[in-house]
Amino acid sequence: MSLIKEIDYGTPAVKSEKMATLTIDGVEIAVPEGTSIMRAAMEMGTEIPKLCASDSLEAFGSCRLCLVEIEGRNGTPASCTTPVAPGMVVRTQTPRLKALRKGVMELYISDHPLDCLTCAANGDCELQTQAGAVGLREVRYGYEGANHFDEGKDESNPYFTYDPTKCIVCNRCVRACEEVQGTYALTIDGRGFQSRVSAGQAEPFLESECVSCGACVQACPTATLMEKSVIEIGLPEHSAVTTCAYCGVGCTFKAEMRGEELIRMMPYKDGKANHGHSCVKGRFAWGYANHRDRILNPMIRASIDEPWREVSWEEAIAHAASEFKRIQATYGRRAVGGISSSRCTNEETYLVQKLIRGAFGNNNIDTCARVCHSPTGYGLGTAFGTSAGTQDFDSIDDTDVVMIIGANPTDAHPVFGSRMKKRLREGAKLIVVDPRRIDLVRTPHVEADYHLPLQPGSNVALLTALAHVVVTEGLVNEAFVRERCEWSEFQDWAAFVAEPRNSPEATEKATGVPADLVRGAARLYATGGNAAIYYGLGVTEHSQGSTTVLAIANLAMATGSLGRPGVGVNPLRGQNNVQGACDMGSFPHEYPGYRHVSDDGTREVYESLWGVEIDHEPGLRIPNMLDSAVEGAFLGIYIQGEDILQSDPDTHHVAAGLKAMECVVVQDLFLNETANYAHVFLPGSTFLEKDGTFTNAERRIQRVRKVMSPKNGYGDWEITQLLSNALGFEMNYAHPGEIMDEIARTTPSFAGVSYAKLDELDSVQWPCDEAAPEGTPVMHIGGFAAHKGKFVITEYVASDERAGPRFPLLLTTGRILSHYNVGAQTRRTENVAWHPEDRLEIHPHDAEQRGIADGECVSLRSRAGETTLRALITDRVAPGVVYTTFHHPTTQANVVTTDFSDWATNCPEFKVTAVQVSRSNGPSDWQESYRKQAEHSRRIGQTVEAAE
Ligand code: SF4
Ligand code: SF4
Ligand code: SF4
Ligand code: FES
């Protein structure tokens, strides 16, 4: 394996149908009009020396190294900023140009430390390369003049350093921060010789606006901005392309290695989801893979009060299998089940559902999508016939109006958030529907045209009010609806939304949003050009989550905002493979490809392939498994890569359910909170240690490639296979590619997928079949796939969870950029520097009423429980609303969330909990007891570690 190097064409590609033909160094070439001379030359293999240019940034023209001669023109223009013209004749190598370039380079080098041999970038430095390319052998001016050699380093960022002595002030970092990331954290301070790169108001990077995305580090042509891992370990030797294991954007990276040691994750320019960009998590937060907390040997114990006993893999697997068999023999076939993980690969989730259906003989399989996007599956499946987002991320480039509902892309889907910001800076309009003032409402060079700060729990009322305006003001796209949707259902729906009780004025009391804002936003959405909706868990995690998804679908169909680039309905998936876990049959009522378990034809496919009889009845969902456990009917569970004690609502109930079981098998990287209730612990593997695929939010299937041996001995798919074989249901896959072949053989929407195709195309978006052998970037072009579009009446039913005298505030929850989900991975990285604890955001008015000062410990109480955390006083939240993240286990935010859930899918109502907040002296009783238990578990873990 060698190091993958992508070609840098110097300036971005230009989209133009018109071509221009020119001659460069005697060779004729045709390129799209508007292309720079530099890029045109590179496309024919001629590399013009450059320092300030990079094809991920707009041309800047500051270094003057890329000069060329053009016949008929005076002077030596910069090739990066000069566009081609038909008939142009260009020379890139003449004695005059060589002399000029050498002179420029001499000036740079005269103010550059001559420590190449000991520099961390030695061999990977553009300044060094270009000095060689222009033939610089000596510096006539010497090194004694004015210089910047005494400037101090900024090492405040945990992942990279800024060493100004090496800076050539090329501006690439500043432009990367503006153009690619959209944060505007960097500037060039001073003029002329005094010019220096400065973060924020001349602050250390860590204290500035910088979000540590790494774009500036990647853009820097010298060792000025440099990964600390490279400084500490050295430059990588080889690399492989793989996919980020954090969020549903699915960024592709080159995992750059020395032997089996990961040196850095470099965003892959050809990655179709990220186009070479990254966020702090995927780029830098991979240290958890080597964290000392990782459990590497299997453990068992007879009861949860006993210490863990380290055992061999054979013993652990045999013990788990015999326990599951014993439980089924005693309590019946349906007394056991499993949970698959949206963090694991498609192949691994496929195997878990196969084990449950084939070895356990029931459909008691569920997944963490239950607590996030299950309403998406239900709502979009009902309306459009396919349970997935309709667009690819590139579609945003054709969008004129972006509507974001209950999502916070710059924190939770940061690379797509940056892409969105770019489109908004180009002029697209923005509507934000969110109780909280998320960053996109106002961020450098972006301001929402409408922010509708609705009351938590009133989504359906608001969306129906938007539809009311569309219908009553004649903004329906009737041609689209007549052609693609059930017309009579549309008429019923239109009559319903047009009722006066659904008008913005009538719903204002429930939503808290002024009617004129709703009317303005509806008009903009319906008439502003290509309109696209992006939504997140602020839509789904409600008692009316499925109804809200249906209301979104109604709005998009009524305005004809489907079936072409630039429009659509796009759920932003939280975890890296939540789309894939759902696709792979992780729900108790569906086989892979969303086919119902009662469908005889599909069942026969699996029965004949697997050689077993499969249960006809849908199985239990996670909440039902827990209820059934408390009732004594469900006694064994296999949980792969999930921490339900932390991620699921009503922690007390989850704990009671787990405690009531006789065999809880947890497979994970760390002794997570759920493992406190486990009898068998099977150590899991990281995404770096196995092959497979993830499917991102745009249905894009991408390869995960093994770059190091699993520290625990096995990939997660192998562990499931071992367990299945011990249960007597044989699996004999030699490689995950064989699992994908079985998925393709048995799942129509995956029929054309294979590892060979993924290697060839980098990725494909399902459906991928005979009709679309290279996948489907935009769905529903020309019509909905399965049936005509269905309009469903969305009657608003207020949540039973309401603010009242005892609990007067509404709590809603979300994520922060530096952390991921329950924080199991990111808390074990340097990312804690940005977010060491969860805080409770509270409006100044509510804080004042309660006598709460910023940073003070407060008690957060609901009817379900109580916890304490520190207050953060901010007007990002409206009066009456409080907000927290849930990344730290000691916060125990889910102790206060209730057992209310979506009517159709049981997705918990995480986003609305009536609470009271008051000053507090310290942790709640529950937190204390939890801390003691966690400490006990940690001690046991340490005992095991010490015994090693
Ligand atoms: S790391 Fe990202 S946000 Fe920070 S300065 Fe660099 S480009 Fe800007
Ligand atoms: S830090 Fe790097 S990218 Fe930024 S101006 Fe200096 S040399 Fe250029
Ligand atoms: S945006 Fe998501 S997929 Fe991309 S690097 Fe960040 S966490 Fe990973
Ligand atoms: S690369 Fe063209 S001026 Fe710097």
Topology:
Layout: E1 19-24, E2 27-32, H1 37-43, E3 69-70, E4 89-91, H2 95-110, H3 126-133, E5 160-162, H4 172-181, E6 186-189, E7 196-199, H5 215-219, E8 225-227, H6 228-233, E9 238-243, E10 252-258, E11 261-267, H7 280-284, E12 299-300, E13 309-310, H8 313-331, E14 336-340, H9 346-360, E15 365-367, H10 374-384, E16 401-405, H11 409-412, H12 414-425, E17 429-433, E18 442-443, E19 446-447, E20 450-452, H13 459-472, H14 478-484, H15 487-498, H16 504-511, H17 515-527, E21 531-535, H18 537-540, H19 545-558, E22 568-571, H20 578-583, E23 590-591, E24 595-596, H21 600-610, H22 622-630, E25 636-640, H23 644-647, H24 651-659, E26 663-668, E27 680-683, E28 692-695, E29 700-704, H25 716-726, H26 736-746, H27 755-761, E30 763-765, E31 809-814, E32 839-842, H28 844-849, E33 857-861, E34 866-873, E35 881-885, E36 913-919, H29 925-947
Parallel strand pairs: 1-4, 14-15, 14-25, 16-17, 16-21, 17-20, 21-22, 25-26, 26-27, 31-35, 32-34
Antiparallel strand pairs: 1-2, 3-4, 5-8, 6-7, 9-10, 10-11, 12-13, 12-27, 18-19, 23-24, 28-29, 29-30, 31-36, 32-35, 33-34, 33-36
The chain binds iron/sulfur cluster (3 copies) and FE2/S2 (inorganic) cluster.
